[in-house]
Specification:
Largest sheet: 5 strands, parallel
Radius of gyration: 14 Å
Strand order of the largest sheet: 2-1-3-5-4
Number of strands: 5
Structural class: alpha/beta
Distance between the termini: 24 Å
Shape: globular
Length: 147
Amino acid sequence: MIYLGTDHRGFALKEKIKQWLDGWGLEYVDVGAKSLVPDDDYPDFVSQVAEKVAQDPVSNRGIVLGKTGQGEAMVANRRRGVRAAVLYAFNEDIVKLSRQHGATNVLSLGADFLSDDEAMHAIKLWLDTPFSDEPRHVRRIAKIDPS
């Protein structure tokens, strides 16, 4: 399942992402914000996404949004099993490597710095890129979240 969460800064882009996911035939849950509230706080929504992703960090994914995506990634990465990557300038290699080498399960987007086309391309690429399962990457991820 894909979980979406943002405050007011990423609200408009989140609504577009829902349309893209619908168009791609992908299921998602929007944990909020459900409406545009100019003084809401991103941790309220991002922490819900991280909690859901942490319940099944291999199968679940999260997309969180904010002005830069930095604070959102900090909130998400506090949850065991969550590995959030920040993207605020489109770079195909960074998106792909975050999945191939880091098995990221949350993509944190800087909504104020990405065009709609860049965001759409990044999300599709991130969702379609598998983890490499190479032993060195498996070993490194195990060091991030030891059992």
